[in-house]
Write a structure and sequence with these properties.
Length: 683
């Protein structure tokens, strides 16, 4: 069947040509993207992305410019799957095509889809931005014409978290594949878009090396001590002690790994930790809380350390080797009073031993031999691993700590976060993301659900050093049972509603609203391993600010995040009035209301832009073609699977071949009709 299909596709592809005008556009964009079968090719949409970040202290406003081009001689629609930071409040979109500049409108997603489809059928240019996860989006482009690029500009704001003594700005550049367990797509929150073709798998391995540029203006407000990136080479230019400009040393790069910038500020950062905004709608604030230095841990309980290792196909190669390096460091750093368990999972979960193992030299040697033998293969059945780790009572007299190593390449994010919440009990779960383009949303949220923390390990770095640093952080929290005395501020709508415990090197931002301006002394109280501590922060809430709407947008994004987190509660607590839990429809309605009021992209609100002009005189039958993606750096082809349970496949699935066939047929028929018209005119 596939052989006959390939032969037919090759015959169809032989009708396709790239004319001179399209090739000129192709050269301006830096190369073409083509689906190739045998000696035949079909042009796919081309894309350039330019990212600029304006960072003020720890508040970032990021602009993402996506330029789409059509290298063929026929109209097409384009679809691009891409990531944004999972904390991003996306508040603006505009589309430029020809001489038109169109400001996008925020609408409920189902209405935005109708607006887009109507424009597409009328031959107008249009752009539709949809959120599928807080870190996963699609951009649909209608009626992308040969020689006429469409530029889409997105803007978002976010706070920059402070982690292990430095601010860390993450700019995701690639969406990795997602494994969907059977049934996951059946829920509203489980649905995911189709994964596009991948260079080196569905397409030839060659990919243009200059798809993305990144520039950052860093205004610290205080002297900048340093700014470094372990993921990309950067060039720094200092305007003054507190203002640096940073760019990629190579100018442009392939979007096959995430960009991370870490920077430190000098001086007293206490007041700089407060962000405020006040306008006609009232006041908004964002307060940074950092725990005190970690005290001596001599009184900490013995631990039952449960190491949960993702050994699915996506972890094959560098990620699994980095996980093994971590296990060497973690096992050799266990305390004599600890016990340990090792669980690995792919299609199912397997445990190293029947009972928790005591920390003895021989037990550690055996465990290291076991972990060294592991390899990546199969699916990512995370639920089986969580069940194995938490489904049995902890060892009496111990504190259970689950250390979860994974790339997070799963599609049922919300389901798994809820599963961990239900199973956790008194345990803590620490998530360690392993990879160059991991699922930050899932990893951060499951660390939150686990009352632990999340850290990341880049397998292309010096893994032994990074693994040792991470292993040293497997400690109990340094500040628990946190409460805030607001000193008469009387804030409303404060998020997160339940303040989590804080670990060494971790920080927390509390967002809220205020009515009355003034000066206050806010007191943060908590338990620091047996002793009560108080952190006093002077706070000035202004009568009026002129700094734009960033803080209110961050507040609204935090409110939406809190609402979406409620969907991970046990099913019995949702849509059940007897429990007093939130109803799913109520959650959705509140998210929609916030999205529309603050012009934010959410799961159920989207941006859509439509041109005034008609660009495609014959829109009927115009095909939709995906923008291909590069393989995530450091992973093997096993990450993309070979079955329908993967959103992304190492071998083109029937739907991939069918999609390319439809594109090819449409282009071919259009070309034949055009040639007939020309012949008729000449006759």
């Amino acid at each position: 069947m596939r052989a006959r299909l390939l032969a037919f596709v090759c015959c169809v592809f032989s009708l396709l040509v790239l004319p001179g005008a399209a090739r000129a556009q192709e050269e301006r964009m830096g190369g073409s993207i083509e689906a190739r079968i045998g000696d035949q090719t079909i042009a796919l949409p081309m894309l350039k992305t330019d990212i600029s970040a304006d960072v003020q202290g720890d508040l970032a406003t990021v602009t993402v410019v996506q330029t789409f081009a059509n290298p063929s001689d026929q109209p097409m629609h384009a679809r691009y799957l891409f990531p944004l930071n999972h904390e991003a409040a996306v508040f603006s979109m505009q589309m430029d095509v020809g001489s038109e500049r169109i400001r996008a409108q925020i609408q409920e997603t189902h209405k935005a889809e109708q607006t887009y489809e109507k424009a597409k059928s009328e031959g107008k240019a249009a752009a539709l931005l949809k959120e599928h996860r807080p870190n996963m989006f699609t951009q649909d482009i209608a009626n992308l014409m040969p020689g006429l690029p469409i530029k889409v500009t997105l803007k978002y704001v976010q706070t920059v978290p402070k982690i292990d003594g430095a601010y860390e700005l993450l700019i995701p550049l690639v969406v990795g594949p997602r494994f969907q367990p059977p049934g996951a797509q059946e829920t509203e929150l489980g649905k995911l878009p189709m994964y596009p073709p991948v260079h080196g798998l569905d397409l030839p391995p060659s990919v243009e090396p200059d798809r993305v540029s990144i520039s950052i203006s860093l205004e610290g407000g205080l002297p900048i001590l340093n700014a470094t990136s372990a993921t990309h080479a950067i060039t720094t230019q200092s305007e003054n002690a507190s203002h640096w400009n940073l760019t990629l040393t190579r100018g442009r790069v392939i979007d096959n790994r995430d960009f991370v910038l870490r920077y430190q500020l000098g001086g007293n950062t206490t007041q700089a930790a407060l962000l405020t905004q006040r306008d006609a709608r009232g006041g908004y604030f964002s307060l940074l809380i950092e725990p005190p230095a970690a005290p001596d841990d001599a009184q900490i309980l013995p631990r039952e350390m449960v190491f949960l290792l993702d050994c699915s196909g996506s972890m094959d190669g560098l990620p699994i080797e980095a996980s093994k390096a971590f296990m060497h460091q973690a096992l050799t750093r266990l305390r004599p009073t600890d016990h340990f368990r090792i669980i690995h999972f792919g299609d199912s979960a397997t445990e190293y031993a029947d009972t928790p193992q005591a920390v003895t030299p021989e037990n550690i040697r055996r465990a290291l031999r076991y972990t060294d033998s592991l390899r990546g293969q199969g699916g990512t059945m995370v639920s089986t691993g969580i069940q194995q780790a938490l489904g049995v009572p902890p060892l009496p007299g111990t504190e259970r700590i689950v250390v979860f190593l994974t790339d997070g390449y799963i599609g049922n994010d919300y389901e798994l976060i809820g599963h961990a919440r239900r199973m956790l009990g008194d345990a803590r779960l620490y998530a360690l993301g392993v990879g160059t383009g991991v699922n930050h949303f899932f990893l951060d949220e499951i660390g939150r659900a686990g009352r632990g923390f999340t850290r990341y390990m880049d397998p292309t770095e010096k893994v032994d050093q990074v693994a040792a640093e991470l292993a040293d952080r497997l400690q109990s929290p340094v500040l628990t049972d946190i409460s805030v005395d607001w000193d008469g501020i009387a804030p409303s709508d404060v998020y997160p509603q339940a303040l989590p415990d804080l670990f060494a090197g971790q920080s927390l931002r509390v967002q809220g609203r205020y009515e009355k301006p003034g000066d206050h002394l806010v007191r943060i109280e908590g338990n620091a391993r047996g002793r009560r501590v108080t952190i006093v922060l002077p706070v000035h809430l202004p009568e009026k600010t002129d700094g734009g709407e960033a803080v209110s947008l961050v507040w609204a994004r935090s409110a939406i995040k809190e609402l979406m987190y409620q969907t991970t509660q046990p099913a019995a607590m949702i849509d059940d009035a007897a429990t007093g839990g939130p109803k799913f429809d109520d959650i959705r309605a509140r998210v929609v209301d916030l999205g529309l009021k603050f012009s934010l992209v959410t799961k159920w609100t989207s941006f859509v832009a439509v041109s005034e002009k008609v660009y495609n005189a014959q829109p009927e039958g115009t095909p939709t073609a995906p923008v291909p993606l590069p393989m995530v750096q450091g992973v093997s082809a096993l990450a993309y699977g070979n079955s329908p349970t993967f959103v992304g496949s190492a071998a083109p699935e029937p739907r991939t071949w069918l999609g390319l066939l439809v594109v090819a047929l449409t282009f071919a028929l259009s070309a034949m009709q055009r040639r007939r018209r020309v012949v008729g005119e000449l006759g």
